[in-house]
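Honest question from a wet-lab person: if I give you the sequences of every part of a complex, can you actually get the arrangement of the whole thing, not just the pieces? Trying it with mine:
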Amino acid sequence: MPMGHTATAEAGSGGLTATEHRLANGLRVVLSEDHLTPVAAVCLWYDVGSRHEVKGRTGLAHLFEHLMFQGSGQVKGNGHFELVQGAGGSLNGTTSFERTNYFETMPTHQLELALWLEADRMGSLLAALDDESMENQRDVVKNERRQRYDNVPYGTAFEKLTALAYPEGHPYHHTPIGSMADLDAATLEDARAFFRTYYAPNNAVLSVVGDIDPEQTLAWVEKYFGSIAGHDGKPAPRDGALPETMGGQLREVVEEEVPARALMAAYRLPEDGTRACDAADLALTVLGGGESSRLYNRLVRRDRTAVAAGFGLLRLAGAPSLGWLDVKTSGDVEVPVIETAVDEELARFAEEGPTAEEMERAQAQLEREWLDRLGTVAGRADELCRYAVLFGDPQLALTAVQRVLDITAEEVQEVAKARLRPDNRAVLVYEPIAPDEADTEAATDATDATDEEAAK
Amino acid sequence: MTELATMEFHPQPQAGEARPWAFPEPGRGTLDNGLTVLRCHRPGQQVVAVEVLLAAPLDAEPQGLDGIATIMARAFSEGTDKHSAEDFAAELERCGATLDAYADHPGVRLSLEVPVSRLPKALGLLADALRAPAFEDSEVERLVRNRLDEIPHETANPARRAAKELSRQLFPASARMSRPRQGTEKTVSAIDSAAVRAFYDSHVRPATATAVVVGDLSDVDLDALLGETLGAWTGSQAQARPVPPVTADDTGRVVIVDRPGAVQTQLLIGRVGADRHDRVWPAQVLGTYCLGGTLTSRLDRVLREEKGYTYGVRAFGQVLRSAPDGTGAAMLAISGSVDTPNTGPALDDLWKVLRTLAAEGLTDAERDVAVQNLVGVAPLKFETAAAVAGTLADQVEQYLPDDYQATLYQQLAATGTVEATAAAVSAFPVDRLVTVLVGDAAQIEEPVRALGIGEVTVVTAE
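Yes, you can. This is the full assembly:
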């Protein structure tokens, strides 16, 4: 097994280090030691997400993720859940546009079990996959869709806005949950083909973080994963590149039974992994993060036209990122009042840029968010995989905070000026209707708009 | 149909030797102003968590002003004698801090999280908020309007609507617990800054408050810091407020809250039972986990993994309010959502699971796995400062000793299958459960009636 380099702690990494290794079958392995608590996190990212899905099979990557918990060569039925939970561990899997991840956090002395389980399904899932689990998990996922999207007010906003923001045929035009029709249409053979295409050691990164002995851990990884054959049959995802700006405003008005009017919008922003994306993150934080942001102060505190107002960033590496605006109106306030105020604030910000104090606040907020993410072994394991899969270098996870702190006010202003414009956004307006006018479908809080679907 | 795998298989590995871990023991002390302080050093936890508990329970809210504790809690972060509302929010965020505050039956809680490097400044702001809140007329008025705007959003959310209805059903109309925690349109409208100030004057003082500080405190002189911040808060002495007993009507019945067109039915099936003061608690935790704690528990094994009726159904016990004399209570409930056409069959299966549990009991294997999970996950669950601080604060709020959580793990490990079965069966008796269904009455009423699980009434949606 060729050994990677041992990193020494870089400036701004908070003293964290990680080492990199690669098995002969192509599986990349990242290890990071931390003996403060007797726990170890295992995280496995497969480089496949909903962007790899084809027309007529939306939701397949996520449905498949559920099937990964239905047993494999040596694991019966729900054994993955039973064995990990019975060992005092926790586990789950999630699917996003760009990747599918599986993770276990274990008491240190049970780490080997988690590695054995992940290897078993990577190497032998198809020995257990059958019609019964396919039919059952299809129903479970359809109920997940109903619970999280179809049965709650504003529940389908994320899906609608994404479809507006990325053109028809674009790999990010549809969200990971997929459509009911496509979930119905997926076959066992689709699932088998999906596994054979994407679930290979050379299409994955495994990270193990926490109270570990790196040599022993690597020996276990080699023992359990080493014999799984790699293969190169994976087609590249369709190209997600788009012009820097939308070149015009896209708009949809939704008349539904919702409790209040809402203005939501998605702005096209720079790809993740760039300085401009970090600058955009800071711009959105100054404008709409927390309760001292410009939009919160204007709409909620001063004008009192909104019950909630905020901006979020959906970071994407394979297509432009999205700046996510969500405003729910107060009382009888009409949407144009909100929209005018938002446009004024964005124009003023592009003109003035952030103040020194605003920069300090936004950087402090993002720094804390990073400390939170890196404060648990599971969070660190996930970030190491993220940077390894999306950007080819896990070490970048440990210096991400410093990169955000290095961004200047000029860079923030520049990205705001170029991107946070009315002609670079997709807009979704909600107009409430009375129950008897409503279709059979109601749709709630899109403020937690998520790009992830989990197995439980 | 099966496919030959090409990998080399190895037997399932055995566990190594467990490394010792114990729930941390906090240090306890009292400042000169009477404030109780719990502290706990957690190496490596750079984000410090501070929890403050105020003895301002919901049953202390004046008649007709339900929601005033919530408005007060929110108003703490809307300005002080040193900062305007906007400046206060800005100063907090400049520390990279978050401050949440909410009111519940036992009292008001404030939760601060901040990187340890900026703890001194953030703790100063928190102390200002408690010591000298501005409660300006216009800010309180804004919070009231904002709260009124939130109510329709909650009513439209099936899970929140179900919770509201269950409280209304279970508790006597005269009890504060029967009414929404954050008030109704009518009561919230009646709240103004003078009323908030009066509530604060009556119920907020250091002598009846507790602060919990958890994180990597190796470079912090906490005594000096507390002295300059929370130590500067003054207030009169006060007697501990008596805690009224909790009474509930759990006569088995079904209430459908009509939500025409809903594609799923939100289930909330509950009653009131023992809290942590009762000796049965560890067995109840274990039995409830076996019934519906996770995807491999009895309920999901049938409703999700066999039938596919749901994304997941959970059984849980959640303390409502405890009392020093042990007369408190917990909500014991089963919740989840099932697709509309399968509402009848899903409830039928759910009741079958409960009846089978009562008739046949749990197995030793189920009990063992549950103990291994509940005890084994402790080091994972308490990795962050916030998780430790939250549990320490819960213990104080529930009049439990500081070593309660540590002891609970020993008790769980010592609880047998028979005790866990008995506790689960008496926690969820099939004829003493109030079932709230938020869903399309036109489609679910008849199938639910046919089950015979209690009298069915339909409530029209607001």
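Two things worth pointing out. The CA atoms of residues 303 and 346 of chain B lie 7 Å apart. Chain B has a mean pLDDT of 96.
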